[in-house]
Amino acid sequence: MTGQDQFIEDVYAREVVMARVGHLIRRKQQEIERITRILRAAASFEGVAAPVLGEILKIVLIGPYARRTWYEDKASLYFSDYEFWVVVNHTLYADETRWCRAKAIIARELGNRCAVSLSVFSKADIKSAKASKDHFILDRLEAGIVLFKASRDAPLPRFKSSERDDVV
Known about the structure:
Elements: H1 3-9, H2 14-20, H3 26-42, E1 56-62, H4 64-67, E2 72-73, E3 78-79, E4 82-88, H5 100-110, E5 116-122, H6 123-131, H7 135-143, E6 145-149, H8 161-167
Parallel strand pairs: 4-5
Antiparallel strand pairs: 1-4, 1-6, 2-3
């Protein structure tokens, strides 16, 4: 097992996430589980002058795979996209630059097998959506499948900055 494999594989039992998307075919379950692991492991929260350490609070699968309306047509090569929403604990960690590494790994790992859409929200964004009754955000979060929730799921093993750079 290479260092990169250990970094991505050592997160949690994959069956946990796969069971949450048990309505999908096995290949789709595996892809969603892999993307979830990559998001958890490869988010870059270092070097941010925030009052709290960066943390992913929730990863939610939304869209057709969560609604059980996914589409795959090999003849026309049309496939439903995977849509992931991530909620982090501070606005500074929702910045697009914090997620470039994760997106690059997902693209490298899954290639052209599927398109992955990633939206990142802070805890404050969600509170604001609740206060303003933003149904676009609230309805999708409600209908989505929670793949990871910090308060219930296993934490990531901690790597030093230099170890993370060597591994990915």
